[in-house]
Each structure stands twice: as structure tokens, then as C-alpha cells.
What we know:
eight-stranded mixed β-sheet; 34% helix; 9 helices
Amino acid sequence: MVLAASLMCIAAFAKDYPDNTYEDIPKDGYQFTENAGKVIRYMYNMEVTRAGQKTNQKRSALVYLPYGFDENATEDQYNVLYLHHGGGQSPEWFFTGEYSGSLLKSMLDRMTDQGKIHNLIVCAVSLSGSYYKELQENLMPGFEEKYHIIKDREHRAFGGFSMGAMATWSVFEHCLNDFAYFIPVSGDSWALGGNQGGVMSQQTAKYLERLVALQGKTKDDFKIYAGCGEHEIATPNLVPQIEEMKKLTDTFVYSENFATGNLYFILCQGSGHDQTTVLRTLYNALPKFF
């Protein structure tokens, strides 16, 4: 019954928004450019408590630095996207490894070279436990100092795929003082329980609305660009949640143009629960931020 209702919701969404406006990645979107950035590994410490004993655990992230990045620069001048992988994956799912190539790296190089994005560093993370706490307390302070991030919510975004989308909603629910932009891909909020964005979509949307107010924010203080594949397991959970959020117009204003709204969703035609959906969503979302 729940799955059937969710599939009907997807059909209704396609009917209401036949254009499903987004730009597909062009054929040369991954083409090599001489003005290429690089991917490096960043290590940081996290205090872990087990059986009452506190120990320091080494954690790592893969970081995309755009062409021209100067570690010796003295001024903060970069925007940042923290990007979380799906369940059972790692930062390598996005960037392969240190000093390696990947589709995401090639796309970011091309977008930077073409002026679609500016001064953007991407930090692929693998957070544990309370995602937002590790992010705020262990990763961000040292990382943002080292890589000259502009320490302001208007220059930070958080996004993620599948389980990483759930982490994205969690950061939205707790960290609006630190982040203004969010890119949840192929995943709903699990604040009320696993997959409840599909089952308790109205309650989930109202909960998100309440969390915005509790953090002292309004509809003018954030942007959410969400995406899903046309053929994937997450669509029946994310679409109903988005549909209910659209009804709460005092907080969520649905519009492809972020000059007049703060919420948008794309259903990527022909793709599924995969990296193609992530790349297409990022390609469309990032030029609208910062």
C-alpha cells in the first residue's frame, strides 16, 4: 500500500511538473582541461569513547582543491561543499583517491574553467555517529583554517548521496547557523525514523519546518536543491517528503529560481540510485549557490 501510494505520488509529480527543469551534463562535461585542480587527503583527530575509555581516532577526507589554490595565501577566500557518501561507501566513491582522477573531479575542473562555479573546495567526508557533531567539532575548525574557507554560513554547503542525504537532512536540522545550502540526493530525512519521509511525509515536513524556526531562521536563510533518479529505491521516500514541504509555504518556497524560492527538486530521467544522479544534481545545484 505504501509503495503503491508513493509510486502514484511520483506519477503526480511528473504530471504537475512536466518540464522537470534541469540541465543535463553536456558531452564535453568531463573533458580534460589544463587548468585542473587536484585531490589530496586531509587527516584529522576525533575523540572516541569505548567502554568508558577515551581514545583519539584518526579520520580522513578527500579534498578537491581547484586550479590556482595557494596554501600559503593569507586571506580566507574559498567556498566549501562538504559531501557525504552512501552506506558501505567511502570518500573514494567520489574522488577515487589522492592525486587521482574521477568523473566528479573532471566535472568540477570543467565547471571551474568555464566559470560555472567559483573558488569552490569540495571535502568528501565519512562521518560517524552524530554526523553534525563530528563535522562541527572535529573536522571544520582545522580544515577551514588550513584551506582558507570563508567562515560564514553563506559560503558553506552540505550534500550527500543515499545515507549521505540522510546526513544532509541531519545537518539541515541542527546546523543552520553554520550552513545555508543543502544538496540531498537520493534520500529523505530519517529524523522520525528510517524512510519516514515516504511513510510519514506530512509529519516529517512539519518537523523540518519546526526545526527551522527553533534555530531562529526563516525561508530567507537557506536553499535546498534535492535530486533523485527516475528509477531508484529512494524516490518513493524523497518525493512525498518534498511534496509535503512544498505545502508549507511560510518556510519552504518551491521554485527553480532561487532568487524567488528556497526549495527545488529534480527527477533525473533515465538514471537510478547511482553516481549519475549525484553528478547531474551537483551540476545543476552548485551554480545556484554562493
